[in-house]
């Protein structure tokens, strides 16, 4: 990391010319602060948003910048918070007046009053987010780092500017943000700070479900999500936020028989899948794929520990969990449910002789999600035995090859019966009835079992045969 005290190169984007001009026009002491500055020192690529703090009116500064910009963008003003936002050069820029804050016990929304830059830096969540670069022409690029945040970046430490107990109690969402940054950046949370999170963990209850889920999504989207979820467990936040996941922890032993710790196994699965997909909903499926094991766990003397039906129970739990956390109850939730419900299907096929019929049914049931399901099941291989690990992966290679061959031949994905209900009614001259459903279902089962090919003529002949068995007669027969 650079050692000099001014960092003009961090402010090379053209937008800063306009912000500097506007700040000097209004004689406002102005700084870039927060994530933009932090990420510059971390060399984390191009910024998408910039936070600007002015010692004075951030709204006035935003409006002045908008006047100077060639396209004069619209300024969105949030008077309640004293902030404003505009878009320029594919960037989202938020302006705020420097402020100090005070909190009440039951809310994370502070009482706000104008303050100095020092006041504003004091209210920041972490030292690495309190770094500020001056934008005024006279001191352009000057770094203001009152809490040695640059040093904490070098040492990969997350700590608070003020006493951590105050910081976390004031705004408990910062507890999850600390854990999220640890997971995203691979940083360590300072021990004193970690202890404070544990002490104040119950304060997370005043945070809205939407805010909590936003942080959970960011933890899940990090390169190694287990870091975040391990810290949520360590700080006692997990049982409050995701009790279904917390319930998986621990190993029971009876008569010398033990089962694996399904909590730590789950985190291994999530880390495995994170290497192969950025799809946060598939990562959610990995996180929740075993939640049905806690309520279905039983011990039998002859066979040991079982978790019968855990996929079915887990899929039902997904709905309750999503509803409680105010997550979307749409196709995203249904996708996670489907993945949890089907999570063992490819494993069973891989362990047995791979029949075309079993593969056809797997493709039919998974539909467009078949690739996601296979990715999840491969991530579920966490054995430390090299021979078993290789064997399981080789088995899945066989299943994948079978999937390809069967789909190319039988076209089962997004299956539509070759014979429609209308044709069944016309052939037998009948009105809508249960017999139509019976015939359509029989055709589907015959195709999936390989009794007939997925072709019109074969399906039509089977339809007539099945209808005859049900006592129906075709128009041709009636005319004889």
Automatic annotation (TrEMBL):
GO molecular function: ATP binding; metal ion binding; nucleotidyltransferase activity; RNA binding
Recorded superkingdom: Bacteria
Example GO biological process: tRNA processing
InterPro entries in the record: HD/PDEase_dom, HD_domain, HDIG_dom, NT_sf, PolA_pol_head_dom, PolyA_RNA-bd, tRNA_CCA-adding_enzyme
Keywords carried by this UniProt record: ATP-binding, Magnesium, Metal-binding, Nucleotide-binding, Nucleotidyltransferase, RNA repair, RNA-binding, Transferase, tRNA processing
Poly A polymerase head domain sequence ranges: 31-158
Any Pfam family the entry gives: HD
Domain tRNA nucleotidyltransferase/poly(A) polymerase RNA and SrmB- binding, residue spans: 186-246
Keyword RNA-binding appears in the UniProt entry: yes
Residue ranges of domain HD in the record: 265-358
Cofactor(s) needed for function: Mg(2+)
Family statement drawn from the similarity comment of this UniProt entry: Belongs to the tRNA nucleotidyltransferase/poly(A) polymerase family.
Name of the protein: tRNA nucleotidyltransferase (CCA-adding enzyme)
Organism (species): Mesonia algae
């Amino acid at each position: 990391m650079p050692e000099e005290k001014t960092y003009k190169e961090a402010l090379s984007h053209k937008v800063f010319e306009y912000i500097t001009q506007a700040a000097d026009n209004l004689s406002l002491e102005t700084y870039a602060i927060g994530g933009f500055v932090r990420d510059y020192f971390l060399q984390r690529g191009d910024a998408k948003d910039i936070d600007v703090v002015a010692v004075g009116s951030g709204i006035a500064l935003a409006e002045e910048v908008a006047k100077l910009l060639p396209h004069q963008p619209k300024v969105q003003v949030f008077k309640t918070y004293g902030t404003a936002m505009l878009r320029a050069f594919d960037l989202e820029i938020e302006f705020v007046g420097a402020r100090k804050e005070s909190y009440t016990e039951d809310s994370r929304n502070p009482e706000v009053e104008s303050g100095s830059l020092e006041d504003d830096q004091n209210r920041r969540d972490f030292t690495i987010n309190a770094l500020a670069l001056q934008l005024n022409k006279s001191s352009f690029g000057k770094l203001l780092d009152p809490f040695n945040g640059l040093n904490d970046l070098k040492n990969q430490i997350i700590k608070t500017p003020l006493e951590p107990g105050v910081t976390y109690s004031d705004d408990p969402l910062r507890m999850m943000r600390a854990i999220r940054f640890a997971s995203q950046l691979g940083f360590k949370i300072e021990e004193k700070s970690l202890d404070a999170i544990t002490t104040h963990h119950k304060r997370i209850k005043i945070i809205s479900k939407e805010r909590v889920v936003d942080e959970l999504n960011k933890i899940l989207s990090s390169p190694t999500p287990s870091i975040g979820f391990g810290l949520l467990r360590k700080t006692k936040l997990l049982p409050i936020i995701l009790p279904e996941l917390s319930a998986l922890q621990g190993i029971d032993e009876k008569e010398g028989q033990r089962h694996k710790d399904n909590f730590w196994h789950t985190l291994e699965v999530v880390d495995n899948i994170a290497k192969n997909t950025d799809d946060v909903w598939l990562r959610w499926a990995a996180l929740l794929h075993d939640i049905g094991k806690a309520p279905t766990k039983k011990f039998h003397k002859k066979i040991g520990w079982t978790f019968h039906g855990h996929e079915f129970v887990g899929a039902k739990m997904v709905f309750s969990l999503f509803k409680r956390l105010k997550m979307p109850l749409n196709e995203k939730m249904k996708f996670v449910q489907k993945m949890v419900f089907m999570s063992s299907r490819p494993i069973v096929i891989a362990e047995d002789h791979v029949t075309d019929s079993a593969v056809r049914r797997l493709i039919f049931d998974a539909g467009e999600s078949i690739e996601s399901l296979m990715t999840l099941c491969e991530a579920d291989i966490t054995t430390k035995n090299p021979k078993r690990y290789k064997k399981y992966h080789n088995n899945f290679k066989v299943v994948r090859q079978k999937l390809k061959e069967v789909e190319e031949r039988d076209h089962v994905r997004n299956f539509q019966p070759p014979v429609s209900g209308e044709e069944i009614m016309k052939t037998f001259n009948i009105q809508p009835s249960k017999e139509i459903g019976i015939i359509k279902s029989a055709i589907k089962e015959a195709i999936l079992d390989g009794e007939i090919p997925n072709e019109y003529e074969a399906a039509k002949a089977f339809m007539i045969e099945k209808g005859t068995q049900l006592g129906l007669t075709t128009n041709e027969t009636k005319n004889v």
